[in-house]
């Protein structure tokens, strides 16, 4: 079953990490602006931890896919839509 997940794991999953991290940044900035809502700082920390866990969880099958299914990576790179997500994945790594 995990092998099938690795085979079909697309490059677009990094967008979920970026979106979660954006919520984290928004909460952090909001807590600095509105001191009355200091719980936003802790909510932002929760989203930070969630984004970090998602990144690690998505990195494992994504890395394994390069070694176990290189033909699927080649198909993704040739696809005009899925190929664009590889640039987005590089931005998540850095």
List how many beta strands DSSP finds.
0
Strand content: under 5%
Give the terminus-to-terminus CA distance.
30 Å
Radius of gyration: 16 Å
The coarse overall form would be elongated
The helix/strand class is mainly alpha
What share of the residues lie within helices? over 70%
Order of secondary-structure elements = HHHHH
Largest sheet: none
Number of domains: 1
Determine the mean pLDDT: 83
What's the number of helices? 5
Poorly predicted runs are: none
How would you describe this structure in keywords?
single chain, 94 residues, mainly alpha, 79% helix, elongated
What does this structure look like?
The chain is mainly alpha-helical and 94 residues long. The chain has one domain. It is built from five helices and no strands. The chain has helices spanning 2-7, 14-33, 39-68, 70-78, 85-93. Helix 2 (14-33) runs antiparallel to helix 3 and helix 2 (14-33) crosses helix 5. The two termini are 30 Å apart. The model has no long low-confidence stretch (mean pLDDT 83).
């Amino acid at each position: 079953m995990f092998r099938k997940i690795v085979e079909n794991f697309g490059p677009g999953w990094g967008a979920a990490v970026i979106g979660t991290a954006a919520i984290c940044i928004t909460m952090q900035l909001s807590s600095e602006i509105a001191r009355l809502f200091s719980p936003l700082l802790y909510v932002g920390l929760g989203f930070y931890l969630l984004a970090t866990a998602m990144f690690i969880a998505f990195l494992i099958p994504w890395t394994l896919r390069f070694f176990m299914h290189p033909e699927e990576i080649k198909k993704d790179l040739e696809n005009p839509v899925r190929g664009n997500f590889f640039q987005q994945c590089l931005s998540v790594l850095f």
